[in-house]
Amino acid sequence: xxxxxxxxxxxxxxxxxxxxxxxxxxxxxxxxxxxxxxxxxxxxxxxxxxxxxxxxxxxxxxxxxxxxxxxxxxxxxxxxxxxxxxxxxxxxxxxxxxxxxxxxxxxxxxxxxxxxxxxxxxxxxxxxxxxxxxxxxxxxxxxx
Length: 144
What we know:
By secondary structure, this protein is an alpha+beta fold. It has helices spanning 34-38, 46-68, 109-122, 124-128, and strands spanning 5-10, 17-22, 30-32, 75-87, 90-103, 132-139. Helix 2 packs across helix 3.
């Protein structure tokens, strides 16, 4: 299976403007450039796309792992924060911090943590990223 995306950039450096499109059409010539990446102008940027991919991949991996463990109800919501830091003349993505809010009735917190840590380590996007990946779990109180 292959999924594709394209990026087009017109002009160079800070004055250039770019557009990103995805195979599915969810992004269709979405604007990006220096201002959307470093100055919070409307549009997207590679780091938020990586964050979206990591949050989505991890959440789905955890959902499937919980189902495999015999659970059949719950809500998972993950936020990912990807950090871009100055590195000499360029930049490096140094980390991806996952924050999980979960409500899964009937699971022991220690068992949930073990399943979540395994999902974090084994989701395909986690495997792709070479940055440090953290996971902060916030379990909602439920009655077992």
